[in-house]
Design goal:
Strand content: 5-15%
Strand order of the largest sheet: 2-1-3-4-5
Order of helices and strands: EHEHEHEHEHH
Number of helices: 6
Helix content: 40-55%
Largest sheet: 5 strands, parallel
Shape: globular
Oligomer: single chain
Radius of gyration: 18 Å
Amino acid sequence: MSKPVVGIIMGSQSDVKVMKEAANFLEGMKIPFELTIVSAHRTPRRMVDYASSARERGLKVIIAGAGAAAHLPGMIASLTSLPVIGVPVKSTNSLDGWDSILSILQMPTGVPVATVAVDAAQNAGILAAQILGVADQAIAGKLDEFKDGLKKKVEEAAKSIEKKGWKSAD
């Protein structure tokens, strides 16, 4: 595999079940990535080292998932000028994910974090690919195919429900 251009990080091993969806999408698009655990609270030095070395290691986008207080995406964004995409994770000690959403979304001016929906790591992978696709025509083409596939699925579902009726949609 080529040198990673996307970093996928999360606060704990329990977040892997959510964050693997970003990895699955990037893998399907053949976009090289790395995936690891970096805790803002339990391994702050590891977090600083990860963020401060990201650009020199070749990363172009970082996807950071975290639950509860969810400081990881914002802290990473404070340490690098790379785009950071935050994934709020609904964890066992979460307030229905609202604590994670607000911790990631409500960043101060100058430290933006793009934020997707709770547990929406696949959307984070898609957004990372879109960011890369601005300068990479091959990725842009794959994204166009992906979006066309989404359109075709909806059109097929519409034809099916129009032909069979809404009661068949269960």
